[in-house]
Amino acid sequence: MAAKLRYLVILTVLFVVSLNFTSAFLRHAKSGLECVDRAVCYEQVGVSGKAITFAADEADGYHFATKAHRVLATIIAFLVLAVNIVLFRVDRDRFPFRRHALAMGAIVLWLAGLGVVAGPSLESWVVMGNLFGGLLLLMVSTLLMTRVFGWQYEFTLKKIVFLAGGVLLFTLFLQGGMVSTNFAGMACTTVPDCNGEWWSGNPLIQMHMMHRFSAAVALLYFGVILLRAFRRGDSGQRNFLLMLLLLLVAQIKLGGLMVEEQLPLVITSIHSTLSQLLITALLVYFYVTGVRADMGMDGSE
């Protein structure tokens, strides 16, 4: 039973990452980024607020991603149902984390309902609802994965610095969502400045630059923690921070390419998905540096 549950949860996490990528791909495609002249389409969608529609013989990537997204959503729904069934068949005292599975089910229903009610809409509440729903589903399913492998969160004072880092990463995620929903992605065409300026009275440029400043703060913050880990000889924390900083640098590099190349669709979608993975990685670190408990989940069950 335990082995089956672990496989189910791992599969769920992998499929959720794929779902979030296709969701980002579709959202940005509808914003005009799959047009031949994406700068013109992006501006038109930003002004009208109406998503781009593609004929059956146009935008093969969009239509393929649409089908893949629906298949992934269906598979995740069945996986979450299976996880809940497995967890509710075992004793409550041995598996106190059923609430995570129930939360996953609620989030899946929320995302499905949002898709039915809002459809292809690019209104701010729809986009942010999908972004937060995708992030929460990834975080909760990953949290459940750490639990089924026996890890339990243990608070220590040194984890406060990572909590602050998590707030920074979430701020970056929120700012990225605001840039997307306000169609500010092409407001700047140069890096590290914005069209020769470091600040402007233009609200779109302000959102763009605040996102960049926050990325710089996050990079500096985790860099300082890494130096402290080197000095203390904390190899576990050092290795995790090296991985996190590599992902953060990759994220910043992708952001630069997005500006220079005027939001190429695939790179923009990867950038959106990676922001969710960064936050989730920090969540996992909170648990795998805690206590490994014997949850009675050996392969013989």
Detailed description of the structure:
- By secondary structure, the protein is an all-alpha fold.
- It has one domain.
- It is built from nine helices and two strands, in the order αααααβααααβ.
- A two-stranded antiparallel ribbon has the order 1-2.
Count of extended strands: 2
Portion in helices? over 70%
Global geometry: flat
The succession of helices and strands, N to C, reads: HHHHHEHHHHE
Secondary-structure class: mainly alpha
Rg over C-alpha atoms, rounded to the nearest angstrom: 21 Å
Q: Number of helical runs?
A: 9
Q: How large is the share of residues in beta strands?
A: under 5%
The low-confidence runs, each spanning 5 or more residues with pLDDT under 50, are 296-301
Q: Numbering strands along the chain, what is their spatial order in the largest sheet? A: 1-2
What distance separates the N and C termini?
5 Å
Mean pLDDT score: 88
Largest sheet: 2 strands, antiparallel
Whole-number total of structural domains? 1
Notable characteristics:
301 residues, two-stranded antiparallel ribbon, 9 helices, disordered C terminus
Strand and helix map with partners:
Layout: H1 2-33, H2 38-48, H3 60-88, H4 98-118, H5 124-148, E1 151-152, H6 160-181, H7 203-232, H8 235-260, H9 265-288, E2 291-292
Antiparallel strand pairs: 1-2
Short description:
The chain has 301 residues and is mainly α.
